[in-house]
């Protein structure tokens, strides 16, 4: 008997010409039955009764296990699949504590206000006497904030508000902090990279302040399935954490299909490269086919404007089939008013809406159940996010469902659709963060010192010797004052407002609508040259604007509303110099290194591209150079191995730059498979003769000051990373290189020169040598403070 997932897949494949199927692989994943556990004996009868009345007859096994651990005083992370009821795992111990002890309080943290609002509604709907749950975020009116501080016993907020609104004013929160029994950290897998590093130090600041008032809260974390969740949660908290991973929730059987859009014959991209049908256009057609079949479906799209365009494309297709069906498709994204989001959620749950194109706004927490199909347009950056999105399909366990992953024109997407095991049978990633990053540590230590003087005993939580080195530098610059009993903040003004925990610090560039003077948003200063340069298309809440002028002196980008049919991509030149080698592996003719580098880049222009990928034109810019001190992984290859010597790549000198350039681009595209990052979080440089190494060298570096842990992960996984890079290039059907393999959307040299075959040859040589045992391993090797002359 054909299951529903297979039937829906056959429907979306109907009409595709024989021999031109975009389907690269499909696989049926089995269903999983529910496994229950009895209600814990310690749980408050009132809490249990309220949960039963809401339809929870008894908890699933992982919910009861996590609740028991938290009740016993252990810090716990529950890392199970989408819709596995992780909220019950923390609601049970928290609500019991609040009901049983009138002085107990709890704090809930989520990465987004929408998720926090959903969880707050879930708690208040139980109607438990004595539970005074309230929001405390940027939307909370000032008058209500006083009530929250004075009376609420479960506060729902986010890391940003904890950082700016609670900890700097902890003396006004004494009642709440003194009774703090539990801290819930929801969707903790989203705290990675620089943001995760800031939040890790924020957790240490929270614990320190709570201890000051006599509280020692238990932390309960909820996460999507990630590799080694105990280690990831422990790194985030700075405390030992027990993981609960045995998912007892039911799961429907699913058919997962991997889909590669076809190459288009009549369009050419940059340097004449072939162009694929866009993932958004393909997703719109698939969504329309699913709606015709009556299947309730979600399509996850990477951007807000992409979600709107996908919904519009599906409606356009449906209007030709049945105009009534066109009205049953909508977009859902951040930036909608709360009442608009609630109405859409109700329409999806009731079946009034059959198809919704969404950003990851529906990935986290929103309770939409029983969907027949999910389409993922472009890899969402991590396997954890992919399975979080895919988990919306068939999540009630009642019927089979379909998941379609549509590849974008990108090396990582190309690799995944041609290597199904990397999607379907590979453990999800571990979260990458680095609380010892000095560019994150310094502002966080400043905030901590402004809250309470830092003592020598408190430094262990903040990195020990790493924190001491940063503090010594801050004292030398008179940012802090050293006294016998600790370090003191010297200014009357608190530093919290100047610390952007979602970026790398520094003054934000403000985006202002020129005609109205309305502030639209802010951009991290490190990204402003690329994203809000003169002529850039800037997206805000699904609306598009064009930048009239970027004023770097005042930190303002003036824009006007416009809906051009093109997008912009910045082009830059880049030099890199090695500051210090941290770790080095020497092989015969190949070295692999990890270390600190200084990257000097300058945005020199931008491309205007149509949605099809076709380049309209190239526009020059005159912007100052920027310098970034960060971490990188790099490998060098000797001239003998690159040349015609036996076992070499057989590359003539003239072909070496293009070959290395191709290998660099593909390596950047594939690193997100091994480190929880996006390709825009990292960068690279390649050169046939680097001044610091004296050999052909390929660098891949973190895009954040001090590094975010991505280069370290690449160094530790160098062989599988480069194997995947080689496979991605070789598997692409294009003849000489395209965006699916070796072209990069952010290449400063306009993707020239690029030698696809040469890139494969270089990687074959490197992997052939690196497979051998390294001859020498050295740590902390001193680097050179010389400037490189390379350009990428």
TrEMBL record:
Q: Ranges for the Helicase ATP-binding domain?
A: 67-244
The protein's matches in InterPro entries, at most eight in alphabetical order, are given as: DEAD/DEAH_box_helicase_dom (IPR011545), Helicase_ATP-bd (IPR014001), Helicase_C-like (IPR001650), Helicase_put_actinobac (IPR022307), HRQ1_WHD (IPR055227), MZB (IPR018973), P-loop_NTPase (IPR027417)
Tell me, what's a Pfam family for it? DEAD
The keyword Hydrolase is annotated on this UniProt entry: yes
Q: Which domain of life is it from?
A: Bacteria
Record-linked CDD domains: DEXHc_Hrq1-like, SF2_C_Hrq
Locate the Helicase C-terminal domain: which residues? 286-439
Q: What is this protein called?
A: DEAD/DEAH box helicase
